[in-house]
C-alpha cells in the first residue's frame, strides 16, 4: 500500500487547502449541533483501505482499517476520531519509505518498521490519541492499522444500522444493513479523520452471506469466498476517487434491482440501478427514468458529467432518517419517497452527488452555503423536469413569505438552532436566485461551472463560489469592477434581517427617493443599531410606460447606501414596480398614489395578466404586510385585494389566506371582526362556487389547493354550506355503535363543528377524548383535543373544558394536556379572554395547584395575559396585575412583558381598526347592495 506519486500530488493539493486562512464570510454553521474542534494537521490521511463484516445475528460488526498517513509537521501523536462505542482490538503503526520521496527522520529508523506505541488514549466525546515513543519527522509516510468491533444501530438509521421488515407474501421477517454517515458519523463505523476536508481515495471490502448482496460507492471489482468461514463471501470494490468520510456507503441486502439502459448515452451516463423489495419493485418502474432525467439536467447545468461509473438508489423499508442518505454513488431513500410521483427528493440527492461529494465544503461553517446552492439547483431541476406543474411551482413565493415573517421578528429564530439553520439556508438560496436574475442565467451558470471544474475532488470555502461568480460577471461585462459578488453576498448572509425599500415619488419633478432600512413586522420596532444595517440591493424597475418584465438587469446597485434619488421617472399617471418577480428577497413600499395606480391597473381584466402572477402576488403580499407592520395605510393595502374578484391563479391567492388568518386573529376581539368575516365570505364564495366542491379530472394541484384553502377559510368565517356539510359528516360518527373505536370524520370537518356546531356535538367530542382507548394512536387524541380547545367561539364550551381539566382534575387529562389547552386558547380572543376571566375568578385554587409546577404556571399566566390587542385588554391586564402584585411568583416577569406588548398592540389597534372598519363599511355597502 505504498504512496504513489499521484497520491502525493493529491495530498499536496489537499494540504494547500487545509493550511488556508479563514475566509472573509464567517457563515452560520449548517450543523450547529456539531461541537467538534478541528483535528490537528500534524498527521493527515492519504488513503484508506476498509474491511467491514456485519454479523446480523448479534447486530454487531467487525472492522479493519488501514490508513496511509503523512506527517506534515514533526509530532509523536496521531489524533483521529473513533466513537467511544467502538471496541479497539489492535493498533499498529508502520513507517515506510515512499517511492521518490525524501523523508526526514528525527532519528535513524529502518524503512517499513513498526513504530512503538506508548499509549492509546480514549476519552468520552474526545478524539482518539495514539501516543508514540518517539517524535516522527515532517514528511514521514506511515500506515495505521486498526482492528475493532462495533454495534449496529437498530432504533435509528444512523451510522451502520440494521433494520428488520416483514415479507408481505410469506410473512417472514427479513433484514438489511446500511450506512448513513452524514454529517460526522463515519467515526461510528470505522476509526478515521472524520472531517469533510480530508478527501482521499478508499478501497472498501464488505463481508456478506452467500445469499445476500453488498453495495458500496464504486462497482464491484471481484468476490472471494472466505477461507475460514464457509458461509461468508468477501466483496471487493473498485478504488474510489478522493472523497470525504461521510460519503462512504455500505449496504447488504437481498433486494432485486431495475437497471436503466441508456442505449447510446452509456458513455455520458452512469449505470443507474434502483433496488427495492421484490413486491415493491414494480412500483419503481419509472424511477430509473426519473433519476436519469434529473442526472441529465444536473450534468448540463454543471457542465461536468456524473463523476462515478454507477449510481445505485435503494428504497428501504422502515428507514427512519429525516432525509435520504446521500452516500456517493449509493443513495438510500424511504420507500414512500421513491414511489411518489414527485421528483424533489430524487433531484435533491442527485445534486449532492456533485455539490457535497465531488466538491465538498471545507468545514461545517461553509456547509450551509453548500446546502443553499443545492436547494436552488434542486428547485431548478424539479421545475425543468415538470415544466413548473408540480406543487413546487409556487417556489420561491411561499418559502419567501415564511422567510419574511421569520427575519422581521424582534428576535428571529427564538432559541431554535434548527430554525436558524433552515432560514439561513433558505435566505442564501434566494440570494443565488437573485444572482441568477441580476447577473443573467448565462453568466451565473458559467461561473458555477467554472467553480465546479476548479474544485472537483477538492474542498471549497463559500468565498470560492462568490469569487468565481465575480470573475465570470466581470469577464462578461455584467458587473462593474467596483462591485464584487463577495460583498453583495456578505451583506445578506451575515445579517439575521432583511431590508425593505421605501419609494416616494415626486410626481412633479419626475424623481423618486428610495430609502433602505430594516424590515420589521413585529412590534415594537426597537431593534438595536437598526440604522447601521445596510445591504447591496439590485434596483430592477418596471414602468407602466415601458412594461417589460423580461429584463432583470439592475438599472443600478444600491451599494449599502441609506438613500438614493432616481431621475427620469414616468409621468404622474403611470406606476412603477421595484423588484418585480421578487428578484431579491425584500418587500417594497410606495407612496399611496403609486399603490392606488397599481390597484386600479390590476382591476382591469384586459391588462391585469400583463403583470406576471409572481409580481401580482408580491404586490398583494407586500401591501398588507407593510400595513400590518404599520408602514402603510390599511385602506391602501386592502384596495390591493380588489382585483381578486377576477383572479384565479393560486399563486396570487396564496398570500390572501395568510392575510385573512393574521388580520383576523388580530382584530377578533373587536366589533370590526364580524364585518371582516362578512368580507371574507364575499371574497371567497364566488371563487369556491366556481371551483366546485369536488375535484375535476386532470386539474392542476394549484387549483386543488385553491379549492381546499378557500373552503377552510370560508368554514372559519361561518359559511353555512360548509358548516352544514361538516355537521352531516360529524353526525355519522355520532350515530355509529361504538364511536370510540375510530374516527370516521375527515379532520377538515372537526374544527367547523366545534366552532359553529351545537352543544351536543361539542359534548360528544369531549366524551371521545375522555373515553379515548389506549389501542388507538395518541396523535389522533391530540388533534381532537387541540380542536376541542382551540376552535370554539362559545365561552361556555371553553369554561366547561377548563372546569373539567383544571378545577375537577379529571384523571383522563395529563399535565401535558393542560399545557396544550392553555396554548390552544391563545389562538382566538374568545379563548384567551375566557381563560383570563377563569384565572381571575379562580385565582387561589389555580395558584395552589400550579405554582409549584413552573412550566404550567408560567404557561397559564402567559396564555391568559399576553395576547390581548386592545386598550380594553390592556386595562384588564393592568388592573389584574395591580390586584395580584407580588403573588405571581416565577410568572411575574411574564405579566410585565405582556403589558409592554399589549401596549404596542393596542396602539396598533387604535390607529388601524377605524381605518379597516371604514374600508369594510364601504366595501360591504357596495357589494351587498
From TrEMBL:
Residues 44-246 form the Aminopeptidase N-like N-terminal domain. Keywords: Aminopeptidase, Glycoprotein, GPI-anchor, Hydrolase, Lipoprotein, Membrane, Metal-binding, Metalloprotease, Protease, Signal, Zinc. It comes from the Eukaryota. Its cofactor is Zn(2+). Its EC number is 3.4.11.-. Residues 575-903 form the ERAP1-like C-terminal domain. Pfam families: ERAP1_C (PF11838), Peptidase_M1 (PF01433), Peptidase_M1_N (PF17900). CDD domains: M1_APN-Q_like (cd09601). GO terms for molecular function: aminopeptidase activity. It is a lipid-anchor; GPI-anchor. Residues 1-20 form the signal peptide. Residues 291-478 form the Peptidase M1 membrane alanine aminopeptidase domain. Belongs to the peptidase M1 family. This is Aminopeptidase. It comes from Nicrophorus vespilloides (Boreal carrion beetle). The gene is LOC108560934.
Amino acid at each position: 500500500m505504498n504512496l504513489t506519486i499521484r497520491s502525493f500530488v493529491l495530498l499536496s493539493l489537499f494540504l494547500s487547502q487545509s493550511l488556508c486562512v479563514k475566509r472573509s464570510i464567517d457563515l452560520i454553521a449548517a450543523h450547529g449541533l456539531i461541537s467538534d474542534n478541528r483535528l490537528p494537521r500534524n498527521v493527515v490521511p492519504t488513503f484508506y483501505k476498509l474491511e467491514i463484516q456485519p454479523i446480523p445475528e448479534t447486530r454487531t460488526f467487525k472492522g479493519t482499517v488501514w490508513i496511509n498517513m503523512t506527517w506534515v509537521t514533526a509530532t509523536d501523536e496521531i489524533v483521529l476520531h473513533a466513537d467511544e462505542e467502538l471496541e479497539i482490538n489492535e493498533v499498529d503503526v508502520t513507517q515506510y519509505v515512499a517511492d521518490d520521496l525524501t523523508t526526514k527522520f528525527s532519528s535513524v529508523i529502518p524503512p517499513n518498521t513498526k513504530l512503538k506505541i506508548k499509549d492509546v488514549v480514549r476519552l468520552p466525546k474526545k478524539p482518539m490519541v495514539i501516543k508514540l515513543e518517539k517524535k516522527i519527522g515532517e514528511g514521514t509516510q506511515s500506515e495505521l492499522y486498526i482492528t475493532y468491533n462495533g454495534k449496529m444501530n437498530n432504533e435509528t438509521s444512523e451510522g451502520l444500522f440494521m433494520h428488520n421488515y416483514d415479507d408481505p407474501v410469506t410473512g417472514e421477517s427479513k433484514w438489511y444493513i446500511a450506512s448513513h454517515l452524514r454529517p460526522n458519523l463515519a467515526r461510528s463505523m470505522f476509526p478515521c479523520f472524520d472531517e469533510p476536508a480530508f478527501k482521499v481515495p478508499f478501497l472498501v471490502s464488505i463481508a456478506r452471506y452467500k445469499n445476500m448482496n453488498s453495495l458500496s460507492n464504486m462497482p464491484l471489482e471481484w468476490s472471494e469466498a472466505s477461507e475460514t468461514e464457509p458461509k461468508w463471501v468477501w466483496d471487493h470494490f473498485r478504488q474510489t476517487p478522493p472523497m470525504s468520510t461521510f460519503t462512504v456507503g455500505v449496504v447488504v441486502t437481498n433486494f432485486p434491482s431495475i437497471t436503466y439502459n441508456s442505449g447510446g448515452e452509456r458513455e455520458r451516463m452512469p449505470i443507474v440501478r434502483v433496488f427495492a423489495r421484490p413486491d415493491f419493485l414494480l412500483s419503481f418502474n419509472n424511477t430509473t427514468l426519473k433519476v436519469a432525467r434529473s442526472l441529465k439536467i444536473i450534468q448540463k447545468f454543471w457542465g461536468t458529467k456524473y463523476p462515478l461509473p454507477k449510481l445505485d438508489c435503494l428504497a428501504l423499508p422502515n428507514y427512519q432518517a429525516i432525509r435520504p442518505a446521500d452516500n456517493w454513488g449509493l443513495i438510500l431513500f424511504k420507500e414512500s419517497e421513491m414511489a411518489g410521483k414527485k421528483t424533489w427528493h430524487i433531484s435533491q440527492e442527485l445534486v449532492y452527488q456533485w455539490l457535497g461529494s465531488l466538491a465538498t465544503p471545507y468545514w461545517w461553517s461553509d456547509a450551509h452555503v453548500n446546502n443553499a446552492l443545492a436547494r436552488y439547483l434542486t428547485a431548478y431541476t424539479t421545475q425543468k423536469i415538470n415544466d413548473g406543474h408540480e406543487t413546487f411551482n409556487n417556489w420561491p413565493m411561499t418559502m419567501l413569505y415564511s422567510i419574511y415573517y421569520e427575519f422581521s421578528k424582534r428576535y428571529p429564530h427564538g432559541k431554535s438552532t434548527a430554525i436558524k439553520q433552515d432560514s439561513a439556508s433558505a435566505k442564501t438560496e434566494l440570494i443565488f436566485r437573485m444572482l441568477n436574475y441580476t447577473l443573467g442565467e448565462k453568466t451565473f451558470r458559467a461561473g458555477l461551472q467554472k467553480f465546479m471544474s476548479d474544485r472537483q475532488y477538492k474542498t471549497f470555502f463559500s468565498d470560492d463560489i462568490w469569487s468565481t461568480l465575480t470573475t465570470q460577471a466581470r469577464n462578461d461585462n455584467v458587473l462593474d469592477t467596483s462591485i464584487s459578488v463577495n460583498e453583495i453576498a456578505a451583506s445578506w448572509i451575515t445579517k439575521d434581517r432583511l431590508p425593505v425599500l421605501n419609494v416616494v415619488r415626486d410626481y412633479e419633478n419626475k424623481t423618486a427617493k428610495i430609502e433602505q432600512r430594516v424590515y420589521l413586522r413585529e412590534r415594537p420596532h426597537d431593534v438595536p443599531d437598526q440604522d447601521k444595517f445596510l445591504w447591496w440591493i439590485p434596483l430592477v424597475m418596471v414602468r407602466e410606460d415601458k412594461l417589460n418584465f423580461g429584463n432583470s438587469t439592475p438599472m443600478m446597485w444600491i451599494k449599502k447606501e441609506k438613500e438614493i434619488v432616481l431621475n427620469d421617472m414616468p409621468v404622474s399617471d403611470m406606476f412603477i414596480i421595484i423588484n418585480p418577480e421578487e428578484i431579491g428577497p425584500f418587500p417594497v413600499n410606495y407612496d399611496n398614489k403609486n399603490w392606488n395606480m397599481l390597484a386600479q391597473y390590476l382591476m382591469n381584466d384586459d391588462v391585469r395578466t400583463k403583470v406576471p402572477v409572481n409580481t401580482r402576488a408580491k404586490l398583494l403580499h407586500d401591501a398588507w404586510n407593510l400595513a400590518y407592520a404599520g408602514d402603510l395605510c390599511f385602506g391602501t393595502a386592502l384596495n390591493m385585494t380588489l382585483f381578486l374578484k377576477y383572479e384565479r391563479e393560486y399563486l396570487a391567492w396564496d398570500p390572501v389566506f395568510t392575510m385573512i388568518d393574521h388580520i383576523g386573529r388580530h382584530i377578533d376581539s373587536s366589533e370590526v371582526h364580524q364585518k371582516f368575516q362578512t368580507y371574507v365570505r364575499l371574497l371567497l364564495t364566488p371563487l369556491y362556487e366556481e371551483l366546485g366542491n369536488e375535484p375535476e379530472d386532470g386539474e392542476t394541484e394549484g387549483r386543488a389547493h385553491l379549492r381546499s384553502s378557500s373552503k377552510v377559510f370560508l368554514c372559519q368565517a361561518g359559511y353555512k354550506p360548509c358548516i352544514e356539510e361538516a355537521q352531516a359528516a360529524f353526525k355519522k360518527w355520532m350515530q355509529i355503535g361504538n364511536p370510540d373505536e375510530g374516527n370516521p370524520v375527515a379532520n377538515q370537518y372537526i374544527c367547523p363543528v366545534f366552532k359553529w356546531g351545537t352543544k351536543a356535538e361539542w359534548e360528544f367530542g369531549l366524551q371521545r377524548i375522555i373515553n379515548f382507548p389506549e389501542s388507538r394512536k395518541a396523535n389522533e387524541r391530540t388533534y381532537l383535543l387541540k380542536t376541542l380547545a382551540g376552535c370554539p367561539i362559545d365561552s361556555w364550551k371553553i369554561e366547561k373544558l377548563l372546569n373539567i381539566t383544571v378545577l375537577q382534575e379529571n384523571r383522563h387529562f395529563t399535565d401535558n394536556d393542560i399545557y396544550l389547552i392553555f396554548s390552544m386558547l391563545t389562538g382566538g380572543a374568545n379563548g384567551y379572554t375566557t381563560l383570563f376571566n377563569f384565572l381571575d375568578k379562580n385565582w387561589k385554587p389555580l395558584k395552589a395547584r400550579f405554582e409549584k409546577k413552573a412550566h404550567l404556571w408560567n404557561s397559564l399566566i402567559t396564555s391568559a395575559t399576553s395576547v390581548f390587542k386592545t386598550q380594553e385588554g390592556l386595562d384588564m391586564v393592568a388592573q389584574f396585575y395591580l390586584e395580584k402584585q407580588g403573588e405571581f411568583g416565577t410568572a411575574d416577569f411574564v405579566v410585565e412583558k405582556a403589558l409592554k406588548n399589549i401596549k404596542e398592540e393596542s396602539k396598533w389597534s387604535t390607529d388601524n381598526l377605524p381605518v379597516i372598519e371604514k374600508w369594510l363599511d364601504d366595501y360591504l355597502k357596495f357589494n351587498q347592495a
